[in-house]
Amino acid sequence: DSGVTQTPKHLITATGQRVTLRCSPRSGDLSVYWYQQSLDQGLQFLIQYYNGEERAKGNILERFSAQQFPDLHSELNLSSLELGDSALYFCASSAPGESYEQYFGPGTRLTVT
Amino acid sequence: EDKVVQSPLSLVVHEGDTVTLNCSYEVTNFRSLLWYKQEKKAPTFLFMLTSSGIEKKSGRLSSILDKKELFSILNITATQTGDSAVYLCAVSPLWANAGKSTFGDGTTLTVKP
Fold this sequence. Notes:
Chain A is mainly beta.
C-alpha cells in the first residue's frame, strides 16, 4: 500500500458524459501527478500539481481538467467522454524537495461505453 | 520530444536465471532515471538514478546509469516467480518540468518455475 488513495476503483459511463476522479496523496506529499494508461499507449503523463498550483503539463486533452485543493487532494475531470478515453487512470504523489520518486495509487479503471 | 525505449519488450526465463533489462533515452535537460515494477496494479518504485556509473542495489535487483551513452540497465539475479511483472523505465527532466516524466513501454518479464 503506497499511501495514495483513489476513488472510485471502477467507473462505467456512456459517451458524452462527464466524470470526476479523486486522489488523496500520501501524508506530507505536496505533488500530485495524473497518468493515463491504456493498452496501446502505455503510461502517459497528464498533469502535475504542486501545493495547489499547476506545475507541469503533458499530453492532456482540452476535455480534461484537474485541480488540487487546499487539503492537497486532487480531482481529474473528464468531459465529453469518448470510447478512446477508456483506460486506467493513476494518481501519484511525491515528497517535497528534489526527490522524484513517485508513489502510485491503485488507479481508477474507466470504461466508456 | 523526450523518448524512452525499453528492450526487450518481453522476456521469459526460468527461476534462478539472471536477466538484464535495458532502457535508452533521449531527454532535454536530464535530471533522473527511474525504474518501476508494475504487477497487476499500480507501479511501485524501485530505483532512482541521477549519477553516471553508480550502481543502486536492493537485494537481487541492481541498476546502473550511463549518462554518456544515455542508457540504463536493470539486473535481476536468481529470478523468482514473484519477479514476474512489467518493468517500467522513466526519465525526468530538470526541476522546472520535473513532473513531466516520460515512460517507456515497459519490459514484460515472465519467470517460470
